[in-house]
Amino acid sequence: MLSLLRRLAPNRHSARDGKSGHLRWQVPDLIDFDYYVDEDERLLREHPAERRRLAERDRTIYKDRIEPFIGDADAHTRQHRNQALRWWLERRRAQEEPEIAELLPGQAFERAQRLVATAMGLVGLAIGIGAASTLLHYDGDHPVNVSWYLFWLVLFQLILVGTTIGLWYGRRSKLIKGATQDISFLGQVLRPLFSRAARWVQKQRLTHVRPDLRERAKAKRGLMQANYALYGPASYLPVLVPAQVFGIGFNIGVIFMTMALIWFADLGFGWGSAMNIRAETIQGLIRVIALPWSWLLGEGVGLPTLDQIAGTRISLKDPLYVLDAGHLRSWRWFLVLSVLTYGLLPRIALLGLSALKQRRALAALPFTHQSAQAPYARMITPSLETKIIRNGEGPEMPIPAPLKPLSKPTAAPRPPKTDARVEPNLETRSEPRSEPRPEPRPEPRPEPKSEPSDEPRTTTTSAPSAAPHTRSETTPAAPSHPPLAPEPQQSPPAPPSAASKPKPEPKPEPKSTPKPESRPEPLPRPGPSETSNGPSTQPPSAHAALERASATPESEAPPVDRVTVDADACVLLLHIDVADLLAEQDHARLQQLLRSQTGWRVAAAVTYGGGRAMADQTVELISNAIWSAPPARIALIQDGSQPPITENLRFLRSVRAAAGEQAQVLLALIGDPDDDEDDPLPPLSDFDFADWQRKIEQMGDPYLRLVMLAPPDDDDEAA
Amino acid sequence: MEAQVPTLAIVGHPNAGKSSVVATLTENDRIAIDKRAGTTTRSDEYPVEIDGKAVMRFVDTPGFQNPTDILEWFQQHADEIDLPRAFLNAHTDDRLYSHDCALMRPLADGAGIILVVDGSKRIKEKDRTEMELLRLTGRPRMAILNNLTSNAKHMAAWQDALNKSFNSVREFNAHRATYAERIALLNALKTIDQRWEPMLHETVRAFERDWQRRIDHSVDSILDLLRKALTFKVVKIVKVNELGSDRERESIRQRLNESLQDGLRTLETEAQTEIRTHFKHHVWNVAPDSLLVKDLFSDEVERHLGLNRHQTVLASAAAGAATGGAIDLGVGGLSFGAGTLIGAGVGGVLGVLGTSQLAKLDIQRTLGVERFTLGPVSNPRFPFVLLDRSILYCARAMNWAHGRQAADESAPNRVPDQAPKKQRGFTEALDGEDHKVLAKFFAAARKGKHSPQEQRVREILGSILHDLSTDKIDSRASL
């Protein structure tokens, strides 16, 4: 009996099918599943932040220990969902401590189910025994009337079985549904019984749990019932099983009692009727009843013969002894076999059927209800994470060190009022390599006379008007530099670069030197012809820019080797990005702006920023320029809307090296020109300017002044 | 195996917005973004991991410091097979090239290139240099036009210039990019190197699923909020002998009303925090004029969100007279003129709810004690307003790019948030059938019951959020 029960309500350890990876759902599993889902939901309600951890946990479970068994290909199908969740449950259970696992509601339910089934079986047995002994009560006066026995124990049971089957198959029709729900003895009586039993089981178990686990274990109590509405037949079938067990017990009891009475007592059976029924009719009836076994146990054994039937007819007037004792006993096996066939076997069949149905129903569960979606979604949704691998702080943007010759004493002495024009850059820039150059230099010195002629050329039309009155304001700025110049400068430039000096030096030098030397004579001035053949690397636009930019200088400067720069003039270095956008008339405005910032006219203009060759040319020009009233004056105009990069700073360093330590270098920034505004020299935003300011400060060059070429408001003109 | 993980180095000159692009692409608002130039000094890596396995990797690099030199060096060494590696070997010890080397390193290791350029500015010489030198590296490359302003004048020129050297050119506003745009960008990466296609396909799918999951979670949060808000009530028990006059009664009523509103506000804030977490936002600021900043019970919120009067009546009627408010509102609708007159006189104490009150006050007197209960909210419009606010919040969270932290919201020429059209609430735009479903759900939620409509409500919200993220529904950015 018990082993039969165990087989019918298999526990989870035997739930595994032959083929690995397939787990079957059992009712206790549903209960545990609901329990875990509920636990998770509660956790999320109370701590929404746990969502992420749960997602991680379930995904890990799935990836490591479920997917290898059931695969991932058919995700989202019913089968996959069913199995994934079943495995999930298995893994969740496995994570519990063994002692607590015993206390899971499903486990308790399973035990309770077994308990209830056993109890039902025993009760059935007892009732069966009672019923049989009542019906077979033999007082010795009258034989036992088989009609009653057959009616109660065979026909009635058959009707019950028939009703059960009828209800089962008709359960979908509304009429029967309503009826069964109302009189559902199963639901009304058995379900609370289960719960109570399960709770009792848990309580019993709890007393065996280690004290330290008890608190946690207590949390596992409750929620004994699966959500019946969600699982349909799978949920009420388990109640059907004990009912069948009861029936089986009952029939066994009946058979047992009947056999016992037959065995230990001499029973006389008979039949009677007030109507005129012939024995043949009864025999026909008996034959039909005995059909299932008459082929094996024929007349005389399995069923009474006609004589025996006729001989056991009870009539009230006849005393018992009239009847033949053999005839009276002949019914006994017929009765036993009838109960066996029509009582016990159908019950066993029903039990099997229930188990089968239950199994099918469980296997077909779709698990699409809301609460089951969550763990499934957590399992099959890949965790997506973007991490940060920090490689630590890198070095700041490199600030190039001043080029070597700067700190040489030769650079310093220049500024004092040697009225003759000097090339401050000569030694500084090129002393190691460009020896040939210094020699030709001396001759151009007497050229100062060309000065007046220079002026109109560079400043074209607007210069005369602008120059006189702006100069008055800005001259103070210009003179302010020379006084500073003589003494302090020697040391200041050095410190910032001291540390880094050794390294950068080798680099810029080889790069900047080889090219100018290879080129014929880039030196004279920024004539378009030279530049265009020089830097082959420049994109076409750069050429165009150059041509345009140099248009102004070309018209003015005679094709002399060197530029002569007057005391109030400077060399203008125009970044190619700026030069690109300047139309003829814009040059005037540029010069005007420059003059308002510095009071300088433009003696010569050259573009830079289009590659090394261009840079070298520029440096060459500065080196070779003939300066009246040294130190040199150089203005650079650059687009400041892009932040400064090392390359820009290096160029500034090389300009400084070429122009001399105390040369006044002005870096004027413009913003990104806007086509609509028709202004190629717009002011720069304060933010961008601040960016430049920071970097320029880091260079530590006291003679380098940073301004916005066209300040947004006249007041800010800081350097 | 490791080598096959698509790696993309985000390069560009300083301040082009590389870090913003990375932050937005990887949805990581913890990436330090500084508006000052040269903030990124090291190549930090941002692997995208699916189930702990890296499927792609972004490398944020410092900006180019010496592009001209690099280009010239490349041109001089044109016969080198692996230019980035050769350059790296030659310059690794040079301090002046430290940033350039950090930038070259991932390229030397085989990374693809995403060049980020600032499309709002004119193409400069430096940009041309960078394009050319990146072309010479021979690595698969894509260019991103990161235009953070409304200045689109140069975009065409950029497109032309970039098309010459790059396999793919895309516009991408790192401060405004939506989910759909991010996915589109990732998809475009497939085209620049065919070998990456399977991995990127998987990545994109994972992103999509992840997004769906976030939507689901947000729907959960919203439903949770609605359920809590609709069952929320405040109780105050006062001894009868302490109740002197009707004035005190009135003040209790006022106080209860305040605490009911406070409670609802707290619930909303909690839900918003949850939603924000779903969308991985840590840094976040809502425009000061947004409806989300406004008080839940303010007039503006009431005016813009929720259903209109007519819809409310219809929906509530469908949900059954359970709400009670439906009748109030129905009457209010009929006697509209009178209602407003009275309302104007009394002054809008409960502005949100128009003529109908937020919740009913229940006073029970027992054993010398009066028990004042306010709530749960019975106003039929309120849940719709709350729902609209929550959806609006989701919309903001979904479409708030993670790289936006550094955005200069005050910049005059930044891309304006979408132009305000006629703005209605989200729920107002739904059809009547959905209104009824929602109203029924609210009615059930009020009673603390599980509603059979929940599944449908979930679907409605899910599809709204989904359409929001794919730009099928306007995100009401101006609200």
TrEMBL record, chain A:
Segments of skewed composition (Pro residues): 479-496
Feature: compositional bias, Polar residues: 529-540
Keywords: Membrane, Transmembrane, Transmembrane helix
Residue ranges, compositional bias (Basic and acidic residues): 416-457, 502-522
InterPro entries xrefs: DUF2868
Transmembrane regions listed in the UniProt entry: 115-136, 148-169, 245-265, 331-350
Compositionally skewed regions (Low complexity) per UniProt: 458-469
Region of interest (Disordered), ranges: 390-561
Pfam family, one: DUF2868
Protein name according to UniProt: DUF2868 domain-containing protein
From TrEMBL, chain B:
GO molecular function: GTP binding
SUPFAM superfamilies: P-loop containing nucleoside triphosphate hydrolases
GO aspect biological process, one term: tRNA methylation
An example Gene Ontology CC term for this record: cytosol
All copies of domain G, residue ranges: 8-146
InterPro entries from the UniProt entry: DUF3482 (IPR021871), GTP-bd (IPR006073), P-loop_NTPase (IPR027417)
Domain of life: Bacteria
Name of the featured protein: GTP-binding protein HSR1
